[in-house]
Amino acid sequence: MPVIKDPDSIAVAGPAIILVEPQLGENIGMVARAMANFGLSELRLVNPRDGWPSEKARAAASRADHVIDAVTVFDDLASALADLNFVFATTARQRDGFKSVRGPVEAGRLLRARHVMGQRTGILFGRERFGLYNDEVGLADEIVTFPVDPDFSSLNIAQAALLMSYEWMKSGLEDETKTNFSGPDMKPASKEELHGLFAYLEGALEARGYFRPVPKKPKMIDNLRAVLTRAGFAEPELKVLRGIISSLDRFSPAMPRGDGSPGDDPRRLPAAAARARKAEAGRLADTGKDDDIPPLGGKGTDND
Questions:
Q1: pTM of the model
Q2: What's the count of helices (H) and strands (E) in the chain, helices before strands?
Q3: Cα gap 268→163, rounded to integer Å
C-alpha cells in the first residue's frame, strides 16, 4: 500500500478534490491538470484501481506535477473526508434522501464563502463507469449537479472536475466576467476624423461613378454613413480604412503599385494624356527636332 501523506501538511488553496476508486491513471492526470488550471492543488484518491503512483497519470497531467506530487491515498471514503467541514457530492441523477441540490454556480459561491470562514471543504467524484453509491453520497453534506442534456447526462470525471474547478475560481473574482488579458486600449475616433473619412470616400466613389442614378446619391450617402458610424471605430482603425481607400483610389489593375506613378494610369485620361503632351512638347522644344517626330496622337506614324 502506498504511503499516505498527512493531509494537514498540504497547503490548502481551496476545496479538496476526492476521487472514489478512479479506474484510469489518465483520468486522474486530467483531473490534476484541470485543478491546476483553476488554482486547486489538493487531490485525494480512494482506492485507485491501478494503484499509486501512476506514470500514466503524471503524463496526462501535462506538467501539473505539483498536484500529482501532493496526492494523498486513502483506504476508504470516510477517512478521506474525516478532516473536512463541508463536502459536495457530484451526481448526474436524482437520489433519494433529504439533501439540498445545487447547481455549479451556486455551489462554487457556497464553497468560497465557507473557505473564507476558514472551513475545509471538498468535492466528491465517483467512478468513471457509474459514479457514487447512495451510501457514499450520504457521507456528503449536499449534492451538486450540472445542467446537462438528460438524454446524455454522463460526464467524464475530468470534465466534471474542470467545471467545478472553474466555478471555484470564478467565485473568487471581484468581477465574474473578468479575463486575464484584454484587447488593446484604443482611443475612439473623433467625429472630425470620421467625417474626414466620409468626405474622402465620397470623393473617391464620385470619381468612379458610384452614385448612379444621380437623384439617389443623397440616400446612398446616408446609407454609407449609417454603415460606417455603426461600428464605433477607434483612431487606428480609421487610419487602416483610409489607407485602404487611398490605395484603391490611387492604383488600379491597369497600373498596380510599383509600376510607376498612379498619375500614369491610362484610365486617368484626359489628365494623363494632357500631362504626356505637355512633357513631349517640352522635350521637343529642348531638342529642336520637332520636324522628325509627329505630334502625339497625330498622323504620320507607321500605324496610320
A1: 0.65
A2: 11, 7
A3: 64
